[in-house]
Structures
1.
Amino acid sequence: MTLKISVIGTGYLGATHAACMSSLGFEVIGIDIDAAKIASLSSGTIPFYEPGLQELLQSELKTGRLSFSTDFTAIKDCDVHFICVGTPQVKDGLAADLTYVFASLAAIAPIIKDGSLVVGKSTVPVGTAAKLREQLLAINTNTDLAWNPEFLREGFAVEDTLHPTRLVVGVTNTRAEEILREVYANNLAAQTPWISADLPTSELVKVSANAFLATKISFINAMAEICEAAGGDVTVLAKAIGYDPRIGHRFLQAGIGFGGGCLPKDIRAFMARSEELGAEQALEFLREIDSINTRARTRMIDLVRADLSADLVGKKIAVLGAAFKPDSDDVRDSPALDIAVQIQAAGALVTVHDPKAIANARNRFPALGFSESIEECVAGADLVLHLTEWKVYREIDPAELIKLVAQPKVIDGRNALDRDKWRAAGWDFRALGRSNA
Ligand code: UGA
């Protein structure tokens, strides 16, 4: 008999997971306490931007396999319950806020049927799964809890969920693993690497993967600082070192650094947890990773002042990009918006453009100027900043854009524009980590 699945928490992770599980033929119910979110998903609209997800949601709703509800009792017949709620940074420290994870478990534990399996997917500090399992078993001894970290990237959420690079399961017994093998039978048939681990290791895989990615980005941004000081070019350096297969080219894009709802908060929560474990020295380097990352934003603002004027009051600055990365409307801890806000606070007149994230950006920073069109955004600008590498910005014809600005000055904060092309069109082109020669 086909498994029935519930997904608790229908944010980015949960909504994607629910739609993808349904597309594999499972009957799926997505649960959330946010009635507006559930209403939106039930009507086939995802409340954020993610390529391909809306189409998948709509086609799965039509099959009748996928539904959403705010009523937790709707999950009572399900065999597997995925916990996909958020674990944001706490307001007063570096640690992760686990309120929603524990609240979800408390809500489902008395309802779920005997023999069912709870599977945590949220990113949590190591040790959380064991605690949750203990609490679950205290309420219902005939259930179990496993951990199954998620590695999906925003912008590729559907692809990453359906075709993950690996599947990691944290289990305490073979029965839990068997159930998870049934859930992921398709991937197993496609030879997706399957890693069976204990609970703490499975939790650590997730945070250490994100810590490694953050380290790679900060490494190249540190090299960008050195290149600036020594007159080198970090884009050439990254290309050259990346050909070493032990290093690789990916995540070596120097610029204004990482943001979003995962990497920054995950490395901080990891540091906080290492301290609790008495192993803080092991992750001391992440403090430096974090500070290199925030310094990239400051270096960008320094470059703006060097390029334009120490005094930014009244300068018109066009910002291309608000999302923390392209193909997303997520502005959580967005380096682009952080820079836009800081230069506006310094007196500049800032107009921000983004293909998808304007509504979210305006919501968060209503005092910034926004424009729906690139042309309108740059009209009369003294300086153009390229801060999120959307494809549409790479497709700009610099020879046309130059006709609209007051001064033909551009700074590429993502090292993604074609410098030669912009210079040939008459632009004064600068970028982080590249000498101006
Ligand atoms: C990240 C991880 O890549 C996923 O594997 C993980 O599942 C997810 O966090 C999570 O924990 O849920 P995501 O936050 O979607 O995914 O974004 P990334 O693609 O990792 O990019 C993060 C930031 O790094 C962005 O601001 C991006 O612009 C920046 N970045 C990325 C660089 O500055 N340089 C690079 O070379 C690559």
Note: The pocket of uridine-5'-diphosphate-glucuronic acid is lined by residues 123, 150-154, 210, 213, 217, 251-253, 255, 257-260, 262-263, 266, 324-325 (CB under 6 Å).
2.
Amino acid sequence: NYNTRTIQKSGDELGSLARAINDLAFSLQRVNEQRREFFANISHELRTPMTYLKGYSKVLREGRWKTEEERNQYLEIIDHEATRLTYLVDDLFDLAQMDEGRFNLEHKKVNINEIIKLVVKKTAYKALDQNLNIEYLCELSDKEDSIVLGDPLRLEQVLINLVENAIKYTKEGSITIYTVSNDENIKIKVRDTGIGMEEEELPYIFERFYRVEKSRSRAFGGTGLGLSIVKQLIELHNGTIEVESTVGEGTEFTIILPKILD
Ligand code: ADP
């Protein structure tokens, strides 16, 4: 009886060891696939603006433009693509630093209301400019300040990213940035009445290079890295980020950060 039990037990152990090795092999394979995919994406993302830069500078060099307006258009494309490349390189640099755990994050007392006011100041011209019909609202509770421990510049970067996306994917209606807080945490919400996203897309939008429609982001000028960086930055602040969205109605991102007492 004792022997049988021992044999059965070791059989179980062998079985679970085999399963663990299988799982490990599977996840290593998945990591490798992700790496390969990541580098393929990077090459593609770098090559596309390069092609534009080379192409249009050649056209200009050879004087192949008919009107001054056409020439300015080409110069604008060159400028736009060069800016895109700069953003891409900045984003990749941030991701590389985070992957290596060498990301320098400040840990200061940060007043979230102040950060939001700054973000609104910096992004308002985008929401109100262009030929958009957008109302840009900011609702903060003045009664209390919401203090978190974190890096003010990085928190600003996160919110600018969410607001710029909201503006990018909203043609008319409103963009609202507001906070809801309790004793333990503060929720920062960025809501838009833009094009929205399908529910099945939502689990993937924080992945690197993921775009809801492949063509969408290129037309809108994004890198597809923004939200993956946002999520990592928030997690480095011991926070979480959630999203709710309905096609044709809009999107709301919620960042939850642990509050500290002032
Ligand atoms: P991108 O730089 O392409 O905007 P992000 O990582 O910031 O990349 O976002 C990933 C994708 O999520 C975008 O390509 C876009 O399709 C979708 N998305 C992000 N924010 C919004 C929003 N506010 N409304 C609708 N779609 C959005």
Note: Residues 216 and 222 are 9 Å apart (CA to CA).
